[in-house]
Amino acid sequence: MKRLAGWIAVIFLGIALGAGSALFLILNVGSVRAVKVGAWQTLPLTGTSNADAYTRAGIALSGLLALGPSEAIYFTAEQDDDGKPLSSSCDYAITGADFDSTWWSVTAYGPDRFLISNPVGRFSFNGGSVNREVDNSWVIRAAPMEKPGNWLPTPAGNGRFFLALRLYQPGPGIIDDLSRVTVPKILRETCR
Amino acid sequence: MRLPAITFPRFLLATLIIAVVTHFLIVQTFPRLIMSRAMAGIGKLAGANGMVAGKRPDENARSIVMPSPDLLYAACVYDLYKGPLRLSAPVPDTYWSLSLFASNTDNYFVVNNRKVKDRIEVVLTGLTDNITLPDGAIQARSPSHHGIALFRFLVRNNADDESVRAFQTKAECALLD
Asked: Across the interface, do B66 and A164 touch by the CB < 8 Å criterion?
């Protein structure tokens, strides 16, 4: 009886170690496989049959039905340019210019990876909807309370959120070297 | 049958073998499990080989993570055991794409506004199926019998919503005649 209990314990321990290590690597695949540019990062093999098993599993969890890099590139940012986690307790200025792509968008998501409920029903800005500066650049203000200009609502309260930058039909220069993308800056302004 | 005694080397070896097998089973099956869940969710709305055209994603869109609020989607869960499929839609002159995803989540096919104008028609078959294509159709070969076909139509701003929706709602997914 003791031996049986011992072997059952071994089986449970093995399963726990195997499942725990698998989930840990799947959840953290970005820290190993991602290309990082400024505050943003992207998994270059997203959607492709060349993706290794960990990348495929990580993408399935965090961005199912993502397109391959020849069609779209997805950058995400969970931190500002100073490396501090994005939080609704602060307001942010996201500054950038057009990209070498057919179109682009910047979207805010809650920690559950879904769109954030807000009073004006705005979840993103794209190349067609953003208001531009005189030099064609743009500034998006991510904040929980309304801001003048391109206001991108973030969660009410002190919740965490993250940003996604989509580049659809990127130019060959971007596909060949993701680190050369001039990503938007994410600057923290006031905090409460 | 008498179980062997658990010595320390046996404990280490058995734990390691079980952990390694469990680890690789989970990593390999994880994408298929997530994809199965997504297919079940979409399939619940239109069944296999039926098209679902939803409204633009907002905070209530919670079936697939990270939906784009700038796109109108039309999705079809396909089942090639029932035969080849015809995926078709009139298409706008702005960005659109039709992408196909295998049951392991790989995006193995995509066609978009740069390649096709006015109307897209794709015949989806298995890897080795040979069929006579209808005029103007493109053949796509799926590495798995099940998967998801997904149309994306760009909505640049709210004013375009209705005009783009006219294309999205005409997207079709049906068995080839």
From this structure: yes
Within a domain: A1? no
B107 interaction partners in chain A (CB closer than 8 Å): 47-48, 65-68, 71
Domain count, chain A: 1
Find all residues with CB under 8 Å of A112, minimum gap 6, and list them. Answer: none
DSSP A1: -
What pTM, to 2 d.p., does this model score?
0.89
CB contact under 8 A, A60 and B31: yes
- What is the set of domains in chain B, with CATH numbers? 46-175 (2.60.40)
Q: Give the H/E segment covering residue B24.
A: helix B8-46
Residue A101 lies in a domain: yes
ipTM of the predicted assembly exceeds 0.85: yes
- Domain of residue A178 covers 36-51+67-191
Kindly give the confidence (pLDDT) of every residue in chain A, 192 residues in length, as a single tens digit, with 9 standing for 90 and above. 778 888 888 999 999 999 999 999 988 887 778 889 999 999 888 878 788 889 899 988 888 899 988 899 999 999 999 999 999 999 999 999 999 999 999 999 999 999 999 999 999 999 988 999 999 999 999 999 999 999 999 998 878 999 999 999 999 888 888 888 899 999 999 998
Cβ(A27)–Cβ(A61) under 8 Å? yes
